Amino acid sequence: MMAVRPSDLDAGLFTRSVLEYARQRPGQTLTVLQAGCTTAGEEPDVRRLREAGCDIALSLIDDDHPAARAAVAARPDLAMCTLCDMRMAPLAPRSFDIVICSLLLERISHPQLVLDRLVETLKPGGLLLLQTGDRDCAAGFLDRVLPRPLRARMWRGLRPGGTAPLPAVYDRMVSGRGLESYAPRRGLVIAQRQALSLLPGRRGLPGLLLATRTLARLSRGRLTAAHDELRYVIRRPECGYARVL
Questions:
Q1: Tens of pLDDT along 48-86?
Q2: What is the pTM of this model?
Q3: I need a surface site. Which of 15, 36, 103, 240 has the fewest CB within 10 A?
Q4: Range of the structural domain that residue 54 is part of
Q5: Any idea what the CATH number is for the domain that residue 51 is in?
């Protein structure tokens, strides 16, 4: 269990995790890789981390796709982003303290190969902060099957001001069950898990919220409407032993 200071309680899961990691390494510059930067949200809050005294060297990378290229061209904050085939990303092993994988896995093929590549870049003791949709939730199912115009509306509602809709692949491993099976097989420790339901807080999407709840009932338990996004704090141990907490 990670210690949380009272002043951190209003910070998000990823921000708290980075703050605690930094406290254990005073004076060290944290090397951070943000994979999936064109769909990254507000977590972790890099500005807050820097204001708290964290010295961060940030690298940006994403899958080479037309929508990602358009996002990079339109946003000055992504000017340093490297776009490439994520399976062959030009990353040195054991080079990052923290890897943030932001809404990337559900939109690419061969996510296990990509995740292997990202894990390989972590230093021993480093953190993988994983944010993803879930194949086994009703929102993930709709993201896969809705016609393009409806999917574009759903995308804009969930990610206002973000990129155009990116592919919805949702490989079988991109689910709670898939990721929680993957981690111990790669010698990783799942330190924290958070399931989020974003739809109720999004104005203009009441029909989508109703659709997910109806779909979940009709699926007889195969799909859930209890959440539409998963977040994990995953640690690469100093040694090869791993367990799920």
A1: 999 999 999 999 999 999 989 999 999 999 999 999 999
A2: 0.89
A3: 240
A4: 6-235
A5: 3.40.50.150
